[in-house]
């Protein structure tokens, strides 16, 4: 009974190893490429070297009304106007604020996101270089099927 169980486990291990190999061979390169492309797209959006984007702000309900627009470049809000009205506070008085392009506002969370995305891209490039090197040299046998 123990030998039969060991044989079944060994066969299950071979099947699972083969399935993992096929999954990695067939699906992983596509997943890797899509992940890299999406990270590169995000890095471009967050880059301060990119063009300034215009963002419209609108929200209106019984608690708050927000309107206006902002100009954003990377992690900086480079200009804009924001109108805020809270009907239940200050008798619904309109509050207006202006961001002057001479004094942009730095948004640390956006900078942190950009840094993490760029770090992830560097890690992916490093791992790709190692994988290509190992494949070319034939030094590493990833799966034995």
Molecular structure report:
Helices cover 51% and strands 24% of the residues. The chain has three helices and five strands; from the N terminus they run ααβββββα. Strands 1, 2, 3, 4 and 5 form a five-stranded antiparallel sheet that branches. The chain is elongated and about 80 Å long. The two termini are 26 Å apart. The model is unreliable at 138-145 (pLDDT under 50).
Concise structural overview:
By secondary structure, the chain is of the alpha+beta class.
Number of strands: 5
User: Low-confidence parts lasting 5 or more residues at pLDDT below 50?
Assistant: 138-145
How much of the sequence lies in strands comes to: 15-25%
Report the end-to-end length measured between terminal Cα atoms: 26 Å
How can the largest sheet be summarized?
A: 5 strands, antiparallel
- What proportion of the residues is helical, as a percent range? 40-55%
By secondary-structure content and strand pairing, the structural class works out as alpha+beta
Tally of separate helices: 3
Gross morphology: elongated
Mean pLDDT: 82
